[in-house]
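Researcher: We're teaching a course module on how sequence relates to structure. For the next exercise, students receive a sequence and then see the predicted structure as tokens, so they can try to spot secondary structure elements on their own. Here is the exercise chain.
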Amino acid sequence: MNAATKVSLYVKSKGTQDPRNPHKKSDDELVSEVTVNVTNLSAAKSYREYGVVSYGEKVIRSVGTLPYFDYCLIDGKKYEVQERQTVGIRSSIRLKEG
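Model: And here is the predicted structure for the students to work with:
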């Protein structure tokens, strides 16, 4: 596995606890920065493997287990988690640009 892409993993914040400014958005929490294998998922492969024709998806794979996260940044673009699969110590996560 060629793990050569650095990815930042984030957890969405639940909101703010400031009663003076309840509409203020709090910053999301950076969980980790990891180096993983990132693969583009074509529409044909997405249909074959997941039964859904979808564009703009990626799959990240790692040899070690990844911490829980809601979204990640790959080359400055935000990708949200669609599906997770962990077998042994290997993780495979399908992402959609969003």
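Model: If you want an answer key for the exercise: The chain has one domain: 5-14+26-97. Helices lie at 43-50.
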